Amino acid sequence: MIKKCLFPAAGYGTRFLPATKAMPKEMLPVVNKPLIQYGVEEALDAGLTEISIVTGRGKRALEDHFDISYELENQIKGTDKEKYLVGIRKLLDECSFSYTRQTEMKGLGHAILTGRPLIGDEPFAVVLADDLCVNLDGDGVLTQMVKLYKQYRCSIIAIQEVDPMETNKYGVIAGDLIGDDLYRVRNMVEKPAPEDAPSNLAIIGRYILTPDIFDLIKQTEPGKGGEIQITDALMKQAQNGCVIAYKFKGKRFDCGGAEGYIEATNFCFENFYKTGKAY
């Protein structure tokens, strides 16, 4: 029912300078695998096989990563190093990849709109690769959300509780509880000051969106920071119909900054690399 997943990946990664001056932040390795590969694996586990990536200048490494490297594969053929390519080969075999460029950085809403030619008129998922999400006890976050979409057939956003003093880093929702960890959104604010935040339920980088979101983004004026915010378009959608916020099961690491990146690396080393599940 949902088969497409959009990865906005044109941003500058300024919170991780100077590492991201010449390397896409989505290619930062967590142990031995780049962030965006974790995201694509999560999408594939949820049954999303058509991967669309919005890139920008200096992001060619993303396209090269999801491609065959004949010289490298020939060099390690028949050696024990082949095991390191098992995961990426699975993605290349089971997923298709398409790309478009965002020529100006005008916010997440604009990045999603840039991906419209790749998505078409159908529901789709959005993954922000620098939010690394894992769930050791069951389904991945996107899988959980796809199951909810099959039930509710509307846009769904992933949320988590954050420190009330850090609401200025996130889009924040207020809503009415309609089920276990499910809220019908009635208000949504982009990066509010703690005293203005409607709650401490923050939106993280996992969405399922219905295709009418594209026209709503086109009608959205630039908001905070002069950017076209996806939260503003989603608020219009919530007023016209239904947007559900889901407090997901699992852990999320903010790998756009050094602290979250180090936490993610330590977690993945202990739970994936040392157990032989890292490839």
TrEMBL record:
Signal peptide: none annotated. It catalyses: alpha-D-glucose 1-phosphate + UTP + H(+) = UDP-alpha-D-glucose + diphosphate. The keyword Transferase applies. May play a role in stationary phase survival. InterPro entries: GalU_uridylyltTrfase_bac/arc, NTP_transferase_dom, Nucleotide-diphossugar_trans. It is an enzyme of class 2 (transferase). One of its GO terms (molecular function) is UTP:glucose-1-phosphate uridylyltransferase activity. It comes from Pseudomonas frederiksbergensis. One of its GO terms (biological process) is UDP-alpha-D-glucose metabolic process. Its EC number is 2.7.7.9. This is UTP--glucose-1-phosphate uridylyltransferase. Belongs to the UDPGP type 2 family. Gene3D superfamilies: Spore Coat Polysaccharide Biosynthesis Protein SpsA, Chain A (3.90.550.10). The keyword Nucleotidyltransferase applies. It comes from the Bacteria. Keywords: Nucleotidyltransferase, Transferase. Residues 9-268 form the Nucleotidyl transferase domain.
